[in-house]
Amino acid sequence: MPHVKLHIPGPVEVSRKNLQGVLLADDWASRQGFKDLYAKIQPQLQQLLCTKQLVYISTSSAWGVMEGAIRNLVQNKVLNCMCGAFSDKWFDVSKRCGKQAEALQVDWGSPIRRRGD
Q: Rounded to two decimals, what is the model's pTM?
């Protein structure tokens, strides 16, 4: 078996045992066992995060969550209010997803205020 590296967000070394486990997983997320587990932890996650809304779990990097949000929640245009590195990243993700991204940028660490405030 060739030497394998997982490149999120790594690269990360993948042992032979872990690689075999992934290959044998057989799409576990679509099975009833996973669905039951996910349903069981939902109320606990909602309580932990003080919400009654569904809590979504992602096994991707932060970039994957950001891309998923932009691709699924933005039709055409998005206003990116930018005041630091994290919000600058949202602007980058928006552009890379092909959205009409407009930047409202202030100095890092400064608040973004409405006009007249």
A: 0.61
